[in-house]
Amino acid sequence: MSEASAHVVHHGPPTSFIRKHVFSLDHKVIGKQYYALALVAVVTGMVLSWLMRIHLIAPNWPIPGLQWLSKVGAPGGVMTPEYYLSLMTMHGTLMVFFVLTNAPFAAFGNYFLPIQIGAEDMAFPRFNMMSFWTTFIAFCILVAAFFVPDGPPLAGWTAYAPLSAVGKDAGPGEGLGQTLWGLSIFVFCIASLLGSLNFIATTLDLRTKGMTLARMPIVSWAWFITSCIALLAFAVLLPACLLLILDRIGGTSFFIPSGLNISDHLQPHQGGSPLLWQHLFWFFGHPEVYIAILPAIGIVSHILINSMRKPMLSHKTIIYCMMGIGFLSYMVWGHHMFLSGMNPFSALVFSFPTLMITIPATIMTLIWLGSLYGSNLRINTASLFCLGFISMFVSGGVSGFFLAQPSIDIYLHATYFVVGHFHMVMGVAAIFGVFAGTYFWFPKMTGRMMSERLGRLHFWLTFIGTYCIFMPFHYLGLAGNVRRYSAFTDDFLVPLIPVHKFITYSALFTGAVQLVFIFNLIYSHFKGAIAPANPWEATSLEWSTPSSPPPFDNFGGKHPVVYHDPYQYGVKSSTGDYLMQDSPERAGETP
Amino acid sequence: MATTLPPPQIAPQIDVEQDLRPHDGNGGGLRGLGQEGRGLRAVKDPSGEPTRTGIWVGLAAIAMMFAALTSALYVREGAATDWHHIVLPPILWFNTLALIASSITLELARRRVAAFMRGQESSRSGPTLWLNATMVLGLVFVVGQYMAWLKLRSQGLYLPTNPNSSFFYVFTGVHAVHVLGGLGGLSRVMVKFRRAARPLRRSTIDATSYYWHFMGMLWMYLLFVLWAKL
């Protein structure tokens, strides 16, 4: 390993406890903070989904303890239909913003982007610290909605106006709760903009000697492309939230039409456009889906190449596909609005690029499968989760073909089919990416290995469990089961209740299985086997740091020099069948 | 067989002094705070790039935000039955002149600071004068915008009165917040310019001035939209 000896750092090692662990400037600590926040959010969101699932199969059964959370929303532990919607709103908001945006992008990106490109830290460490703590404030504001008298908002994570805009009259939670929601997302947007700016500047300017853009690992590319998407997407949601808040507390009428009579109150607003909110929201909302999934695609590709011990068929094509997806993601927002009353011609216009997105997605899938074919795949928990990711991505993606066509979407819109589709392709797939990343990078982040036995148990039970939960959703949707209903006991959906019971039992089981993961995480952190310097025999720079976890400046005051493309696997070298990016060695012929 | 590359293609021993400007086509890489405590002129501007890149990226986000607001205005106008044109307060034209003038003074300041850094200018007082002028003109603009709000208020046009007044307050308000941010950046430049420890870098004043000029152009665009649409 050849290193430059220039000793330049842009902040010294932290000395106090506060600087080390709380208001840290170190991108690694900030990455871990994001991960911890995402973990808290995902557990909260999962418990909320449990409560909803239990209520769906036993609407009159009092859930012990729920009355303490809300006396109004769940008198005696039996939740009201409105409170069901509140829990649904909070579940969606927590999962999309604080889990799917934070974990694969902000957490892993913060930790590994600077190391993978050979930098000491992010370009703006203070901004970085600020983005985490701003996100934390946004989280606190959102969770505070649980503790206001009327409870959390019930307008869904998409907060459709005028329901979200008119205030108290629209139902419990639409008073202060919804205002807190708007404020929380407003603050979250600022945090994400700061974070994306930092990622972009870091990638463009802080790459070490020899680390050309073409030599960046796929996952660094994924974070870079994601940050470009996030920069433009959150810049639209930010003013949208501002206008929503003004409609709520400033008396304006951006989104509220004339003559609305809600709860026997004629609303004082006039002339606003509810569709305007949907346009602004989905212009952010669809790219947001790719903000969640692209980092996972990057993580999975990165780990798969390592486990296959040979280069992808074409790792550059994957990067181009990610760019293509990022570009197209801005042209498809209207496919969420086929039934909104928008001009039917626009539906056709939006349908076309939506179907086009399947092209890069399919190319990527084919590259993964084609590369796997005939490879000597090393099976471990991380690579298993990568395979699980591909499975989920395909299963969830295929249902997208149907939803992308307006004529079919008319039937499937607002049914459980849609719920099954997006949970698989963006929720579970992205989470599988996070699991894969956790098992793969844990040795680097803590210096210890995670338990492989528990890891595989976790994988198989989660894999089977998530399919048991989300596959039947498609069937429910085809059978006409609408979303957002809190109970199906009195109508034509009664025959479907056994399916709902199966889903609920699967959800309780799969959720409980995650305790294995959390136990593994905590146990291995303290008692796991000491990790070797490069346990996966990987090539990228994160495995070139002098220690695990890396010192505060990542490379111990030195700067690695990069000589190779990121994936020199299946070659002859003094280290075995791979060459590190910073090894000055030249690869021999393929064995 | 593995062979060793002789000699490493990229110089492994990198001299700090020489390598502070990492422009070799291989990406950025080495950067740091440079040599502290050797006075303003000793700084070779080692780390300009992220600051400049960062400001462009930030401006892209701000541009996107105003694009979203503009499209909101168009959609809202299309849906409206209550579109009442308002007369723009005349003080806006004076404010516009102040903002344009502040861009000119800042550009003069930037050049004088650069000349000072190169050692062509002996004292700090020349550049400081232009920085102060920019600050004053910027404050004049913000106060002028506030007076425009007062003018609307005196006509009974409040934020919720009609969509036109709503958009007027939102556009001018969001822009004014960004101008205040620019004034904050400018005062940071002024403080750094005076002190010896961790002194001003070229990239900092460059980035601040890009931001400031952008605020000027953005305002002229907004003024056009307000004039044409409201």
Spell out the helices and strands of chain B N to C.
EHHHHH
Q: What share of residues are in beta strands of chain B?
A: under 5%
Oligomeric grouping of the chains:
heterodimer
- Low-confidence parts of chain A: 1-9
Q: Assign an overall shape of chain A.
A: globular
The average pLDDT score of chain B comes to 82
What's the CATH H-level superfamily name of the largest domain in chain A? Cytochrome c oxidase-like, subunit I domain
Give me the secondary-structure category of chain B: mainly alpha
Q: Average pLDDT value of chain A?
A: 93
CATH class of chain B: Mainly Alpha
CATH top-level class of the largest domain in chain A: Mainly Alpha
Largest interface: A-B, 69 and 55 residues
Structure description:
The complex is a heterodimer of chains A (591) and B (230). Chain A is mainly alpha-helical and 591 residues long. Chain A has helices spanning 17-22, 27-57, 66-69, 81-116, 125-144, 176-205, 218-250, 274-308, 315-328, 344-372, 381-403, 406-412, 416-446, 452-478, 497-527, and strands at 3-4, 261-262, 265-266, 559-560, 568-573, 576-579, 585-586. In chain A, a hairpin with a 2-residue loop joins β2 and β3. Chain A has three domains: 29-255, Cytochrome c oxidase-like, subunit I domain (Cytochrome C Oxidase, Chain A); 328-525, Up-down Bundle (Cytochrome C Oxidase, Chain A), CATH 1.20.210.10; 530-591, no CATH class. Chain A contains 15 helices and seven strands. Chain A is globular and about 80 Å long. With 230 residues, chain B is an all-alpha fold. Chain B has one domain (49-229): Cytochrome c oxidase, subunit III, four-helix bundle (Four Helix Bundle (Hemerythrin (Met), subunit A), Up-down Bundle), CATH 1.20.120.80. The longest helix of chain B has 32 residues, at 48-79. Chain B starts with a strand and ends with a helix. Residues 1-48 of chain B have low confidence and may be disordered.
